[in-house]
Predict the 3D structure of the following.
Amino acid sequence: MTTRTRVAVFATASLNGLSRRLHMGSGTVAGGRIGLAIAPNLLETLGAGRRSAVVSGTNGKTTTTRLLAAALESTGVPVLTNATGSNMPAGHVAALAGGPADAPAVLEVDEAYLPAIIGALHPNALVLLNLSRDQLDRSNEVRMVATRWREALAETICTVVANADDPLVVFGAQAATSVVWVAGGMRWRSDAAGCPACGGRIRFDEVSWSCECGFARPTPDVDVEVEPDGRTTAVFADGRRLPVVLLIPGLFNHRNAVLAAAAAEVLGVPADHAFEAMGQIEGVAGRFSVQDVGGVSTRLLLAKNPAGWEELLFLVAPGTSPVVVAINARIADGRDPSWLWDVPFERLSGRPVVATGERSADLSVRLHYAGVEHERVADPVEAVAVAARLGGDRGVETIEFIGNYTAFHDLLRANRAS
Amino acid sequence: MNRSLRIVVVYPDLLGTYGDGGNGLVLTRRAERRGFPAELIEAASDGPLPVADVYTLGGGEDGPQVRATESLNEDGTLARAVRNGAVVFAVCAGYQIIGTTFPAADGSPVPGLGLLDVATVKGRAPRAVGEIVVDADLPGVGALTGFENHGGLTEVGPGAQPLGRVRTGVGNGDYTDGAWAGRVVGTYLHGPALARNPALADLLLRWATGEDELAPLDDYREQALRSERFEAALGRRTARGRRRVR
């Protein structure tokens, strides 16, 4: 390690420690930025010779990263990870500077930064979850992201664990020399109708998809079987059938766990051990946790874009409990909440619904045209109380709170403060 | 009118990236609330375009925009419908498509459908992204609020008029936004535009139904959203000098 690198690592680690002690933040970005300013190739240096896995995609990155980290931790080694979701280079540097030089790393990476991170880190395994529209005011078109993935993966030797159900992911992953295809699922198909290979039209049936040009769903190396009651089994090419039992809810999480297990195997952890470790995870950065919000039992869910909402509306569909929907449109959320009109809020019709968040006026108009009766309450904690009241004599049931990125974190913060 | 009003969202699989499909839903519900039976059809690009009273087109990515233009040209229904007096409301990529020419991803010109006399070229500056406020020249419509996100500069030819003058934002790039001629209207406003601007939605419905007046609706939610957006675009931002305002 050069002196410059040592200084950069020291600066990163001390600034992060300081920031945490002063409660100024979770201390992952500021320190990393300083480190990168001192030594621009810091990530490359910190990553050299280290066993690592990278997780990317539009939805499910933070949870899948947590699951995969848990699988590796089960072997008794410390694992370096950007658990707070700081998924750009400063966050990666901060995660790696914080621990031993030989500790394995599991990093969540922003879709657009993936090519640069692969180039710097040379991970052993790369998990590609899904690609769909997100923050259109600032990010690139999803087809462009898939094309950049494809270019980057043509030049890498790492093993890619990719979702065979998402045509855009397949288009990107196909270029890699070694791919483990997993039936990772995809409920939202509105960004995948146009074939990324030829510009033609992709046709979907119940389980598969294909285009006239020959571009089609690869046969999964790891399939996922789902019983009508939701029980999920991972079926490996060598005949192993492993039940996927998680504390966190949702079929999408179970499918992501199968991708994580396949990546764990690439890193030397048998899938059955991986599933056992992943099955202990209760909540991920507050997501999926049930908390007491002002005396009301509330399940906290985060959805950032139409594909994420599609999954969560499916998740809450069997229930009749009140639902609070919280929408902001800050930079991290995307400044334009027009995507609310791509979300099938019609499915909430008949349930008690409360609209909250800084853009609850937009949401309220959307819900009105969806035929969903609702109240509008500015403060998110108050919104939970109003939802509980609307639930009336349903008693002590848990209400659902679904927020987009900053709206979700506003509630977490408000709830910690109270 | 005694048959049902047919409203078609054109190619949501290609022109559905920016939530503009909401325009069709808004028109449908606002017609129904006035007692006009209305039928909303989302017409995908792999089938023939249905004959309808109103067509809405939305924003989309560059590649799909070119493919939508090819399919609409081949299909021919939209052009025939316009000749027969159908109402067209087109946003962003959709607005560019119904013009005479627009740029492909590499900037090369693609012939549009020629249903509205506007021509779009690639702008030099970074994309226009942000809140936009337009004083509409259409009768009874007033100020429009929306969110724009595009890289094109659009010139309105002699066969059309600008939809209005831009108070803040970029629009066509010459202090106007959008264009209209007959019953064909184009604009850069997302939001969706008709959810944020019910007066414009009702003007299109008056054209489509032939009614001179429509029963008023209780639009308090829309009005609350409008005041909030106008303040965000004109009030606070102006004070901080974050956007140029003329």
